[in-house]
Design brief:
homodimer; Glutathione S-transferase Yfyf (Class Pi), Chain A, domain 2; Glutaredoxin; alpha+beta; 11 helices
């Protein structure tokens, strides 16, 4: 049995996959994809992941893509603790949160991070290689929806759009706070894929300067959950994976 | 055991839920939500589904929302044929298609249907009740992202946006065609939730005038799959559910 993860050290969805692999105790080989150099859009990688995003997982020659599908695959395929509740109603809530992690939290966090991080990264590349080289890279993004969105956002995102995105993430933080009234984990007494799926975005919201939104004063259950989940060995392992290129310097 | 489905006869996601219920042989009570009268945004319904969309399912007093989570719930909770493959790699592909049914197919089909159907429906309401009454309804949409999108689109969608959406759906049709090279169903030899999830959008693409895209001449495997799946009793039952208000006339 051989597992290879194609991922980037700081990517939210890569962290989801690494956390689940660590929970199950799966050994895996790392292929680090340098998003700063747009390696995710290189032809060799697009053969693995047709949308040119990370992560992708190779298990004995079969490729699995999309972080939520990867999480369910890891849980269903490998030994180790079950990462979903026994109760099917709790499982339904788990899947609603997994879906929102991608299509509400990730989507809006991408907008929140854009001006400070993504645009900055693009600017660095253009400063080094020229604007035309940058745009050539952008046009190599294989997913036409993402390409269109990226080109649309390439001059920066308005304060109004960012503010709207921040409000949408705050809504979700309040919903997590409410769900944690019932039990210690998001969908009940079982630590589940839902906790793994939303964590990177709680973490990233804080990294973007919104730590107050997950403070004890504002959302005490979310704050306690956030402190507690970071004590799990799987989370420590998944989030401490550092850029191997930096280590080599 | 009591199951109640809150749904609309013609809604794509309601059809997903009804097909899965029929496959499993589950008896259910119908609460028909009249989207033309914006009943989905009525306070009593928003207590059931906080986003004000259909379907929602009540099983013994517990509410399950989001069509993909409902599909998995139906499969995991009720007796009857298993609607997912045994092989976990095929299951991962099933979940990728379920995700795309919602976030690629549904999203783009909504844009394609807008000018001909949604805008028309809004216009009818405004003609009858006045523009201010319509906008009051729109502002009662509880999901702020959807509300913002609807207001943005309320004057109609440009030809350019529609053309882009049509191309995105065509991409997906080609991907289904390619997956059907392997086996008779989308993710393999097992009829699965993936087939149930994409069907309403293949059907709706045809209803929007793009039947040629699923013709034998253009995509023979998709055309054969589309003809074959419509012979299933579950599909006949789910898609023949008609507007009870019309029947009463």
């Amino acid at each position: 049995m051989a597992v290879t993860l194609y991922h980037w050290w700081g990517s939210t969805c890569s962290r989801k996959a690494r956390t689940a692999l660590a929970e199950k105790g799966v050994d895996w080989d790392s292929v680090h994809i340098d998003l700063h150099q747009f390696e995710n859009w290189a032809p060799w990688y697009v053969k693995i992941h047709p949308n040119g995003v990370v992560p992708a997982m190779d298990h004995d020659g079969r490729i699995i893509i999309e972080s939520n599908a990867i999480l369910e695959y890891i849980d269903e395929t490998f030994d180790g603790p079950e990462l979903k509740p026994v109760n099917t109603w709790e499982r339904a809530n788990m899947r609603v949160w997994m879906d929102k992690s991608e299509h509400v939290l990730h989507k809006n966090m991408h907008l929140i991070s854009h001006n400070n991080h993504h645009a900055h990264r693009w600017g660095e590349y253009a400063a080094k290689h020229g604007q035309e080289a940058l745009m050539e890279k952008v046009r190599s993004q294989p997913d036409l929806q993402r390409r269109s969105d990226e080109i649309h956002n390439s001059d920066g995102i308005s304060d109004e759009v960012v503010a709207f995105a921040v409000e949408r993430v705050k809504d979700q933080m309040s919903m997590i706070e409410k769900d944690l009234e019932r039990a210690p984990w998001i969908t009940g007494d079982t630590f589940s894929l839902a906790d793994i799926a939303v964590l990177p975005f709680v973490d990233r919201f804080k990294a973007n300067g919104y730590g107050e939104e997950i403070s004890e004063a504002k959302r005490p259950r979310l704050a306690e959950w956030f402190a507690r989940i970071q004590e799990r060995p799987s989370v420590k392992e998944a989030y401490s994976f550092m850029d191997p290129d930096l280590e080599a310097c």
